[in-house]
Amino acid sequence: MSEAPQRKIIHVDMDAFYASVEQRDDLALRGKPVVVAWRGPRSVVCAASYEARVFGVRSAMPAVRAERLCPQAVFVPPDFARYKAVSKQVRGVFERYTDRIEPLSLDEAYLDVTAPKRDLGSATAIATEIRDAIREETQLTASAGIAPNKFLAKIASDWNKPDGQFVLKPAMVDAFVAVLPVGKIPGVGKVMEAKLAELGIATCADLRAFGEAPLEARFGRWGRRLHELSLGIDAREVQTERPTVQISSEDTFASDLPLDALEPHIRRLAASTWAGYLRERAQHPDRVARTVVLKLKTADFRTLTRSLTGAEPPTSEHALAQTACDLRARVGLPAGTRYRLAGVGLAGFAEPDGSAAQDDLFA
């Protein structure tokens, strides 16, 4: 790592993006707790303004829970066409400084400004100018993290939210990362955090002390990756064209269903996923998905996935649907469990060189 050219990465994250767009476009919403979501028992929160977050409202939370936490919240149905238009504006700002842009979603992106179009003397100055331009041209605010790699830049962008930025210089990395809770590492959810806690691991310093080999023995390649991140090491480049790593479809049911009633829904979702897969294959015929994934969410909002990577990839919609249906046998929950959502996905894409691109489905 010390011999490689020092990258300068900026992670830009729009502040409460969907909710902020709504507040910008409707003066009556400013200063009020705004929840972007459809009302109803099956809906989830797409975004919450900072006024709503004070009450504990968060994205992906059931809308009914958000309403209980903040009865005075103003619910606004999402308008994704409008959000995409604003996201395009923000992308235009980025393109003035670099072509090395990796969008993660409508509201965040990585920028590699190691060799920028406009040299302002530092990545920090570029981030400041980008945020100023976003504010002037969209009347919205963004936060930014500046660091030597993507992992650190993403963490840094959250450090001074909202409407702030944080710089992690190379000399600061070791001490900064050592005290980070493992829950701050992207990909470490509640389940993984609990598994690490059982091993006495709470911080990145604990990961370092546990050692790379024992982590890899327990968690495979993910264990090795955890050890690298605990040292602040992340060699990933900013990818201007990200290959497809997942194709999936999911649906929330009108009412909760038992496992044995899910087959027609799984087959319907498999048809949608297969259609998306055929479109992907038409553009990239060399890339083949090898892993079938079934996602289920229980009535009490517990999410679980079951996957199968067979000796041969699925070759038809029927084969995909049948494998997804068969994965129900591996759910392992009591027979009386009811489910509010199902999803069917394809992952484990093999690259033309034989390597695999794998990512979490339905993230």
Characterization of this structure:
By secondary structure, the chain is α+β, with helices and mostly antiparallel strands. Among the domains are: 17-80, MutS, DNA mismatch repair protein, domain I (3-Layer(aba) Sandwich), CATH 3.40.1170; 174-230, DNA polymerase, domain 1 (Orthogonal Bundle), CATH 1.10.150; 247-357, DNA polymerase, Y-family, little finger domain (Dna Ligase, domain 1, 2-Layer Sandwich), CATH 3.30.1490. 36% of the residues lie in helices and 21% in strands. The chain has 13 helices and 13 strands. The strands form 3 sheets. Strands 5-6-1-7-8 form a 5-stranded mixed β-sheet. Strand 12 (338-350) and strand 13 (356-357) form a beta hairpin. Helix 12 (263-283) crosses helix 13. The chain is globular.
Produce a short descriptive summary.
With 363 residues, the chain is α+β, with helices and mostly antiparallel strands. It is built from 13 helices and 13 strands.
**What order do the strands of the largest sheet run in, or round the barrel if closed?**
5-6-1-7-8
Radius of gyration: 22 Å
Order of helices and strands: EHEEHHEHEEHEHEHHHHHEHEEHEE
CATH architecture of the domain at 247-357: 2-Layer Sandwich
From the spread of the alpha carbons, the general shape counts as globular
**Which CATH C-level class of the domain at 247-357 is it?**
Alpha Beta
Number of helices: 13
> How far apart are the first and last residues' alpha carbons, in Å?
30 Å
Return residue spans where pLDDT drops below 50 for at least 5 consecutive residues. 352-363
Strand content of the residues, in percent? Answer: 15-25%
Task: Specify the structural class.
Answer: alpha+beta
Mean of the pLDDT scores? 91
Do you know the CATH topology of the domain at 247-357?
Dna Ligase, domain 1
Helical content, roughly? 25-40%
CATH homologous group name of the domain at 247-357: DNA polymerase, Y-family, little finger domain
Largest sheet: 5 strands, mixed
Number of strands: 13
